[in-house]
Amino acid sequence: MTIASLKDLFVHHLKDIYFAERRLVDELPKMASKASGAQLRDAFEKHLAETRQHVEQLKKVFASIKVPAAGEKCDALEGILKESQSVLAQIDDEATLDVALIASAQAVEHYEINRYGTLITWAEDLGFTEAARALRENMKQEKQADRHLSEIASMGVNKKAA
Fold first, then answer.
1. Per residue of the chain (162 residues), what is the pLDDT tens digit?
2. Radius of gyration of the chain (CA)
3. Is 98 within 8 Å of 37 (Cβ atoms)?
4. What does the alpha-carbon distance between residue 87 and residue 79 come to, in Å, rounded to a whole number?
5. Could you give the CA distance from residue 68 to residue 61 in angstroms, rounded to a whole number?
6. What pLDDT is recorded for position 156?
């Protein structure tokens, strides 16, 4: 696909985040299974349910702009996951593993927040009001997930690993 306009760029990035969200539906259960703390495990499971909703919201965004829903490999997410898996494989201590899982999840959240912020701005510029609303809802949940992970870390997970 040649990118010749802001709409083309919007669609390209939309496909990117769609791929990312679908990929995370597969990754979040793995992260939850590695978490030793119940609160962290619950946070991953809750966000998995939200991520499934994000996929459905993105399908609505595609429909609202009359483009078939399709993903395009997200090299950024794949890189974050690859690095995270490499670090996690080196950790035996459960408390340290929980800290690393939080850091990995927050790297993903920050990427998603960045991507959604860009997409929202472009949707507004393109007059895609319905798309902007749906994207804003997804970003709101990503920010909440990031804040919740920070709370879990500061409520003792980090100190436990120190």
1. 699 999 999 999 999 999 999 999 999 999 999 999 899 999 999 999 999 999 999 999 999 999 999 999 999 999 999 999 999 999 999 999 999 999 999 999 999 999 999 999 999 999 999 999 999 999 999 999 999 999 999 998 898 888
2. 17
3. yes
4. 12
5. 10
6. 86
Residue type, 76: A
Which residue matches tokens 């979040």? 28
Q: Yes or no: say if 141 and 50 are a contact pair by the CB < 8 Å rule.
A: yes
Query: Which residues, including other chains, have CB under 8 Å from residue 159's CB and lie 6 or more apart?
Result: none
Helical residues (DSSP H) of the chain, grouped into ranges: 6-34, 38-64, 75-88, 94-126, 129-152, 158-161
Please tell me the distance from the alpha carbon of residue 144 to that of residue 126, in angstroms, as a whole number. 27
- Structural domains in the chain? 6-161 (1.20.1260.10)
Structure tokens at 160: 């436990």
